[in-house]
Amino acid sequence: MVDYRRQGVVAVLEVNNPPVNALSKHVRQGLLDCINRADRDNAVKAVVIICKGQTFIAGADIREFDKFPGGPAITEVGQRMEAADKPVVAAIHGTALGGGLEVALFCHYRIAIKSAKVGFPEVLIGILPGAAGTQRLPRVTDITVAMEMISSGKHVPAPKALEYGILDKVVEGDLLRESISFAQSVLGKPLDPRRLSHQPVKGADKLMPAFDAAMKQIKQKQKGMISPVACLKAVRSAADLPYNKGLERERSLLTELMTGSQSAALRYAFFAERAAQKWQLPCGANSTNTKGLAVKTTGVIGAGTMGTGIAICLLRAGLPVILVEQNQKFLDKGVSTVKMMFMDAVRRKLMTEDAARRYVKNLTPAVDMQQLAGVDLVIEAVYENLALKQEIFKKLDQICKPSAILCSNTSTIDIDLIASATKRPGQVIGTHFFAPAHIMRLLENVYGKDTSPQTAATVMELGRKIGKVSVLVKTCHGFVANRMYNHWSTEAVLLLEEGALPQDVDRVLEDFGMPLGPLKVSDLSGLDVGWRIRRVVAKLEGVEITPQTRFFRGERYCPLADKLYDLGRLGRKTGAGWYRYDKPGGRVAMADEDVEAVIKKHSADMGIERQVIPSQEILERCVYSAINEGFRILEMGVAARPEDIDVIWLYGFSFPRFMGGPMFYASQVGLAAVYERICYYHKNFPYSSYWVPSDLLRKLASSPKPVPIGQWMSFSASKL
Fold first, then answer.
1. How many CB atoms sit inside 10 A of residue 716's CB?
2. pLDDT at 494 over 70
3. Are the CB atoms for 338 and 315 separated by under 8 Å?
4. CA 579 to mean position of chain CA atoms
5. By CB count within 10 A, which of 212, 251, 299, 636 is most buried?
6. Which string of b and e fits 99-119 if b means at least 16 CB within 10 Å?
7. pTM flag (> 0.90)
8. Among candidates 194, 133, 141, which has minimal Cα distance to 164?
9. What is the CA 254 to chain-centroid distance, rounded?
């Protein structure tokens, strides 16, 4: 996997391990063999390490982390490079990440093309650079830079890396030719000053202020994660200890992280995201054997918050968008919002002004749906109302060309009900974006009983094109995301009438790792959204919800949210919801005595004696109710595997990534323990059917040996 050749007096070591030249044991062995060969060859005066394909070494092979990898360690290879008597030059293109950057730091010199990037992303999978990266980076750049790079995992562009001192030269043109020329230019220069293990740490005199500031920032921005803290400790040891002792400290911290639950969860999340892209339909069609239609033109119906956010996603991907609204006033407001968002991106230096103008130029406003006649794909983004959506889809079926795909940005409504309004149900699919659509990365694509494989493939490919993490699920009310979250949020409200207050519930879930508790989330999305969804469901069921409703669809029901809606408390947008805010649209949630009074009066009116509810019960009732529904979703085939569910929660609800997702979290707690508590709550709350234990969970929990999450579905099939 490492080719060796000589060009004049320069030995060229070319790594060839597609697709990203990962540092597998074969690559490590190849590098070691080739550097020894070059050192023995008297005709060789310098060495260049370069890579084939699209990138330099983009990191270690993560698949080797849970097993003994064999072959030489990266540090063994690197120390041999550094000890060489001939200058060794790393020639970087694409990305030099993790172990790839560590290899480069063992070299005497580093050059890169202008478009290259370097970084240490290990923190994102719960570990730290374990091949001397934490010890060598602060010897080539300022320790504050090293702390920031290693604890954040951010990629650094080549020009900035040159400014930091990480690179010695940035070049344009042919990288191999430039690297050979550079290697020849340093012949005869002393190598000892280029061996980083011999150099002092840069900026060691300001270690403690830098360390304290970085630690404070981490505790604010990366709450609950232990790997960023360990990264800082490892970099600090570079200044506190001699080089070899620093390596020992780095290794000790890495071992602690590697054997911990957070790293296991983060690595699981890494692979789960990639697994979600490999979708399969019950008919046997899958991501390998099905190709989607080419989408070159798009339409969006609805210029509200969701419609404009979706339009921005499509425009940023270079797709022309026809934005349709029912009247000119609403349309003008939507177009203004799109333009404002792009200008804000320019102000924040996320894009150039020319790019923003180019995107906006691709937007065509319209008040007539007839203008959608020629588009390849339409996304409807009106509010959750089945009758309205069916009316729109009936019109689209008549207007759009026969090959056009019709998508609904519904968050709960069964896709089959929407598709029934058309004569092309095979080309109808759900594309559930999460608010704000131009920021949230999840796209929950929902297929119906008649959705064609080509339609599914098209929206999955579209999701990738617009930068989303797409997951394909089967239709039902609420799909995966909201079907599970509904129980989470329902329990949060039921806890209020039993004795908790909004701030009690939210504090427990935020301490667990959620960015916002469920009541704050409700205020953010708007209490009117949930109110409207409940009315749609009630209408379909032919029932009515009143402030006195105690049961709905056969389930225990708490009308507290409806009572706040009736008081005009719609959340942040009105400055009052479960909390009060300093102004409409305000962000700081403050406990409100008026809400407390409403809650306590409601409990008294219902004859409920309020009690102090332990934090553990609050956590379990919210989280375990969702987990139990997750197992039901797997039983019914709504999601194909637990990884899909976890990806939805990681990207749709910001579930703590260092816990892997609710299904992985359940596996870590222990399925038997989770099952036991679900049985307990089923016994105590028999009027909430979602506490009836999942049959799949029961089977897995009763297994004599723990069943790894990757084997849940095959285990279930074998036991049926």
1. 17
2. yes
3. yes
4. 28
5. 299
6. bbbbbbbbbbbbbbbeebbbb
7. yes
8. 141
9. 24
Cβ atoms 17, 1 nearer than 8 A: yes
For residue 720, pLDDT over 60 is answered with no
Q: What tokens appear for 639 in the block?
A: 């999601």
325 sits in the region (left: phi over 0; alpha: psi -120 to 50; else beta) called beta
Measured distance CA(7)–CA(46) in Å, rounded? 10
Q: What is the pLDDT of residue 137?
A: 98
Contact 150, 92 (CB under 8 A): no
d(CA 380, CA 404): 13
Q: 68: alpha, beta or left, given left = phi > 0 and alpha = psi -120 to 50?
A: beta
Predicted local confidence at residue 719, as pLDDT:
61
Q: Sign of dihedral through CA atoms 697, 699, 705, 711?
A: negative
Report the candidate in 491, 467, 482 with the shortest Cα–Cα distance to residue 638. Answer: 482
Q: How far apart are CA 295 and CA 245, in angstroms?
A: 57
CB 376 within 8 A of CB 350: no
* Enzyme catalytic residues: 102, 122
What pLDDT band is residue 68 in, cutting at 50, 70 and 90?
low
The model's pLDDT over 375-410, given as tens digits with 9 standing for 90+, comes to 999 999 998 889 999 999 999 999 999 999 999 999
Peptide bond into 190 cis (omega under 30): no
The rounded mean pLDDT for the chain is 95
The length of the chain in residues reads 720
Q: What is the mean pLDDT of residues 587-608?
A: 96
Q: In 10 A of CB 256, how many CB atoms?
A: 15
**Tokens linked to 184:** 């020849």
Please give the structure tokens belonging to residue 273: 């995201």
d(CA 708, CA 266): 16
Nearest to 92 by CA among 21, 11, 31, 35: 21
> What is the rounded distance in angstroms from the CA atom of residue 92 to the CA atom of residue 111?
6
How far is the C-alpha of 13 from the C-alpha of 457, rounded, in Å?
A: 41
User: Who wins on pLDDT, 543 or 709?
Assistant: 709
Q: What are phi and psi of 610, to 5 degrees?
A: -75, 145
613-627 per-position pLDDT tens digit: 999 999 999 999 999
Pairing type for strands 405-408 and 169-171 reads unpaired
Enumerate the H helices of 637-670 as residue ranges: 642-652, 662-669
Peptide bond into 686 cis (omega under 30): no
CA nearest to 325, candidates 362, 299, 354:
299
- Which of these, 328, 355, 356, lies nearest to 343 by C-alpha position? 356
pLDDT of residue 549: 81
The residue type found at 361 is K
pLDDT digits 0-9 by tens, 420-465: 999 999 999 999 999 899 999 999 999 999 999 999 999 999 999 9
